[in-house]
Amino acid sequence: MKHGISQRKLGRMPAHRIALLRNLVSALLHHETIKTTLPKAKEAARMAEKIITLGKKGTNPAKSKAEAYLMPPHNSPTPSSSSLASSSTSLDPEEFIAPKTLLPKLFNELSSRYNSRSGGYTRIHKFGRRQGDNAPNAIVTLVDGPRDLKFELLARTVGKESLDLLQQKGSLEEISEDWDGLREKTKQKVEKVLKFKTDDEKNQFKQKAREFADYLQAEEAAYGGIKSPNVGVDTPKYRKPGMNTPKSGKLLRAGERLSGVSTHTTGLGLARGALARTPRGKQLIDKTPRFWGQARLPEGVAAQVV
Predict the structure, then answer these.
(1) What is the spatial distance between Cα 2 and Cα 305, in angstroms, rounded to a whole number?
(2) What are the entry keywords (predicted)?
(3) Which of 14, 76, 214, 282 has its CA 20 to 30 A from that of 155?
(4) What is the CB neighbour count within 10 angstroms for residue 226?
(5) Buried b vs exposed e over 10-31: b needs ≥16 C-beta within 10 Å?
(6) Where does CATH 3.90.1030.10 sit in the chain?
(7) Each residue of 47-74: pLDDT tens digit?
(8) What is the mean pLDDT of the chain?
(9) Rounded to whole angstroms, what are the CA distances from 261 to 83, 164, 181?
(10) In CATH, what number does 14-73+102-142 get?
């Protein structure tokens, strides 16, 4: 019979594994976002869900269980006012002092934040691979918090897709509550992220989307276009220009990805070359880095501009 398969072993002995998960969960509740490997992230998110559920209960047994699990130790003495006054060194107001306990945040702030949620307090984002052993990295965040990564990334996606309305209507209108002009997949993500948000947080989301849309429009004008040297046809365009080439514009580098441009122009996409997966319905992908305005032009016009 298969016993003891309730969680991943993580290549550690039981005592080491328990201490590792306690440390990860405590760091996640404190900083609200941590970066670790994918197997550790899945186990830490699972345990963090249980600890937050204890915080929502608010009973004395739940407080005892949370206090016994969370780190750092909660029985460490705090300095009194008399000892601080007698000490010769004064505390720097800018110095970061770690809290002695996470119970007030767990049973007050987090319990009120997730009061209307029945679960799903964490979110895992895959983040490439670790250098050395090529282990998959992941970022674990607490949802609906000030450091929610998906809230920021989705706001940029909405700002980029709202610029498509600019070419159709000629003016960037106020983003409506129905999120007109966005893709259906983006609409579903927006509804999921803003489901438990307040009106102020929804307005903040719209403000972030408009700021990123303005940034995409101003980026090309700020750099003055892309600097392309007047050399032969066989010479790579990303080569550093010489004395006879114009000095205005952004220097084009191999594999560079500009804001709002597809990931096919990254270094990995260029390295794959002909082996890269071609999107459905397209036979050839132009992997030349462009600004947002140049990337939205027709293929023939975009090739002439670059």
Answers:
(1) 64
(2) Ribonucleoprotein, Ribosomal protein
(3) 282
(4) 20
(5) eeeeeeebeebbbebbbbbbee
(6) 14-73+102-142
(7) 999 999 999 999 999 999 999 999 874 4
(8) 77
(9) 58, 14, 19
(10) 3.90.1030.10
